[in-house]
């Protein structure tokens, strides 16, 4: 058997570019000057995914319908992911992250699993529901931000007398899709125990929980406005003094009615969740109106600014740590 390609013509007989391109195809190659899909390098980030806002007031009713139609024992999670409306896109919300709304009803358990994608939750409504991360059980209260770092076992369970509980999930699944190291296991298959972590420890304070009351107190104690000027006050939700998780940074921003930010752009991608208040984002010429519970997608390199109508608190989840670590973070004020 020949070690070379059987259909390779005698190269001394190749006299035209068309023949040369045939050889390229035969050898799984392409000429840098002859790229049917266009050049591999371009001057600045392309506008691939779109600026968009999802309205909680609309989606909450849809989740309630899912609550009627989708039995929790048949759905691993009762979540609805937010698909960026760019043509051809089927999953990401922004390039590296997906956002979802999730709902759980009294008495339900969303069974334990773990996965390499990192996740976080921003609680919108309801009391009496807990998340259990690596055996630590933490109640989820409105305004709280809770982390599920990569590969940590986690489940969500609602007490029999809980409210319907609604929250926002943000995960770096699209980044893991790009990088490839996807792993996922169900607790039931690995450990057993009916799929629930046994004997959880009840914790009020935990390194994975940023309580809303603490965030508010920290914001009030702030004296200097953030340098970027995109909000009146800002705090970062950190882990060991660094970003909340290796791939996602979290900031809580506060701005009062009448606030108008400058315009900036950055190579990082952001998802803003509205905890309180209302206003508008102007993202690359598109006006996106937002209010409580809404999620705003600001894709990379789109110029954007905020104006605030009613006193507002936003949580910004961004992939800044990824771009920072790779020396690819560029931020400009316009
Ligand atoms: O709650 O564990 O929205 O694993 C997507 C994947 C939520 C979760 C999502 C998940 C979860
Ligand atoms: Fe999960």
Description of the molecule:
There is one protein chain. The chain has 334 residues and is α+β, with helices and mostly antiparallel strands. It has three domains: 33 residues, no CATH class; 158 residues, Jelly Rolls, CATH 2.60.120.10; 120 residues, Jelly Rolls, CATH 2.60.120.10. Helices cover 15% and strands 35% of the residues. The chain has six helices and 21 strands. Strands 1, 14, 15, 17, 18, 19 and 20 form a seven-stranded antiparallel beta sheet that branches. It has a six-stranded antiparallel beta sheet with strand order 2-3-10-5-8-13. A six-stranded mixed beta sheet has the order 11-4-9-6-7-12. The protein starts with 16 loop residues before the first helix and ends with a strand. The model has no long low-confidence stretch (mean pLDDT 96). The structure holds 2,5-dihydroxybenzoic acid (GTQ) and fe (ii) ion (FE2). The site of fe (ii) ion (FE2) has 4 residues, from β4.
